[in-house]
Known about the structure:
three-stranded antiparallel beta sheet; mainly alpha; globular; Mannan endo-1,6-alpha-mannosidase
Amino acid sequence: MLFLKAAFLAAVVAAANAVKPADLSVNNTDSIVGVAKTLASGAMSYYSGNASSFADLPEPYYWWEAGALMGAMLDYSYYTNDTSYDDIIATAIMANTGPANNFIVPAHELDEGNDDQAFWAFTALTAAERNFTQPAELTPKGVPSWLDISINVWNDMVVRWNTTMCAGGFTWQIYANNFNGLDYKNSASNGGFFLISARLALLTGNQTYVDWAHKVWDWTYGVGIINKNYDVFDGTDSATNCTEINPLSFSYQNGIFLYGTAALANQTGDDVWATRAQGLLYASRRFFSPYNNATDVMWEHACEGVGTCTKDMKAFKGFLSRFMYSAVQILPSLAPNVTDYMRTSATAAGKACTGANIGNATSGDGTTCGQKWYVGGFDGSVGLGQEMCALETVQGLIGLNNVIAAANAPEPSPSPTAPAPSPSSSKKSSAPGTPQVDLRWTVASTLCALFLFTMA
Ligand SMILES: *[C@@H]1O[C@H](CO)[C@@H](O)[C@H](O)[C@H]1NC(C)=O
Ligand SMILES: *[C@@H]1O[C@H](CO)[C@@H](O)[C@H](O)[C@H]1NC(C)=O
Ligand SMILES: *[C@@H]1O[C@H](CO)[C@@H](O)[C@H](O)[C@H]1NC(C)=O
Ligand SMILES: *[C@@H]1O[C@H](CO)[C@@H](O)[C@H](O)[C@H]1NC(C)=O
Ligand SMILES: *[C@@H]1O[C@H](CO)[C@@H](O)[C@H](O)[C@H]1NC(C)=O
Ligand SMILES: *[C@@H]1O[C@H](CO)[C@@H](O)[C@H](O)[C@H]1NC(C)=O
Ligand SMILES: *[C@@H]1O[C@H](CO)[C@@H](O)[C@H](O)[C@H]1NC(C)=O
Ligand SMILES: *[C@@H]1O[C@H](CO)[C@@H](O)[C@H](O)[C@H]1NC(C)=O
Ligand SMILES: *[C@@H]1O[C@H](CO)[C@@H](O)[C@H](O)[C@H]1NC(C)=O
Ligand SMILES: *[C@@H]1O[C@H](CO)[C@@H](O)[C@H](O)[C@H]1NC(C)=O
Ligand SMILES: *[C@@H]1O[C@H](CO)[C@@H](O)[C@H](O)[C@H]1NC(C)=O
């Protein structure tokens, strides 16, 4: 007994060693944990806050990305059991809840829209779902629970459902004087509220959240932000009464709706949500396999090929990974296809994290991440988003492998919908030699002035 315990502890210590991302072995927990440790350190090198004090990210990163970083780090702690960042994370979240404990932060009025608020709420929801420790001594004010903070966001957002035009929808912005004000209705804000509703439904069983998730889905689908093939587009405009769709499409937008539909499938047991989740997963193939030398490797198809990704866009792939992994935890029937995508993409991401500290990079020299995973190495594009994308794609393999192991276990699975063991990767084919670029969906520089809507 004592011997076993010592052996177990030794294994834990060994697992805590950092591993070079390029050496990732996707079926080996120690390897995944070690690579995640390297990547978490790289991502957090951009963050100068500490366990007692929050700090905004350096220029040029917007406020939402700090919330997204803390969400990625919550997953890091959960999947790897490395709790060394926990106090830093808790302090950062609590420092940003604002006076009403709902992530409305006066200091960030100029860069807070509905989607930015939603990204912080995703992080609070993760903390609530994981029962993440809430260290009262680290927070200067009263400590509402992570769940209460998430509910506060929902209650704050719901009154902004706007029927003046388009028969509904959330606008991108909260404040009329921000860029594009209260005209643009985007998938991230509507999907953000949809995902918050779905996760609150799962956490609380409160039917109000299920009903609103239905309502937001119906509106988003009704105006065509989601089409019948489950492609999710960037948004639409009140100026046209939402009759014209901005056809840009980004990976995280699919991920937000995928995770929300999976949560509702789990909570309601209604096949309509499982069907939608499968549809969104199928539609996500547009974010993989850009060339026939890169089958199942993720890319941001609207901008990577043409080199027009902004700082924000360089973080998006990580959210598709995070939300795919989260969806699989609660809807295991998604596992086989997610496995093909994520094991291949994580391996490619690892090979991209072999750079030196060039430019403003602060991550470990020799393990700095590039942006494009399909090139087979480091492409010289460095930044926080690049680190986060690799981190989120790698660390979730642990949760995915747990789901696969549970499905393969000899005991009858507790879930009737658990998948058959992942078949030996049946490869999805892409048109030989043809990049899957639809030019209408590409962020061309000429379109920027009109259509380059992101999070800020
Ligand atoms: C990982 O394990 C799966 C079986 O679960 C196997 O099909 C796959 O080839 C393995 N991958 C690697 C890189 O070892
Ligand atoms: C945390 O950061 C604050 C603000 O920069 C600083 O005053 C404080 O000394 C730091 N605390 C620790 C333990 O490093
Ligand atoms: C590098 O850092 C400086 C100072 O914080 C900032 O102004 C600049 O935009 C950064 N450059 C890039 C490419 O991130
Ligand atoms: C983390 O801890 C849990 C509970 O002890 C354990 O089941 C799990 O295997 C651990 N995960 C890793 C990656 O070590
Ligand atoms: C959450 O943690 C508290 C104490 O920290 C414990 O009482 C409670 O049972 C935990 N809940 C879950 C769902 O793990
Ligand atoms: C609703 O949208 C209209 C524009 O369609 C805008 O003028 C109005 O201020 C918005 N209302 C709220 C509460 O945001
Ligand atoms: C806007 O579209 C909605 C349906 O989406 C319709 O009910 C409404 O009458 C339209 N308003 C205008 C001003 O065209
Ligand atoms: C369900 O959620 C709504 C919205 O947050 C709230 O107003 C209502 O009180 C909740 N119902 C229960 C039974 O908690
Ligand atoms: C999963 O992959 C298989 C094999 O490539 C494909 O036929 C199927 O359509 C995919 N399903 C989804 C939901 O992506
Ligand atoms: C719902 O999610 C839980 C994990 O949180 C899982 O054990 C269960 O099998 C899921 N139920 C369904 C119907 O997918
Ligand atoms: C795959 O092909 C694309 C397009 O020719 C190229 O940019 C990329 O570097 C190639 N990737 C690898 C791993 O060779």
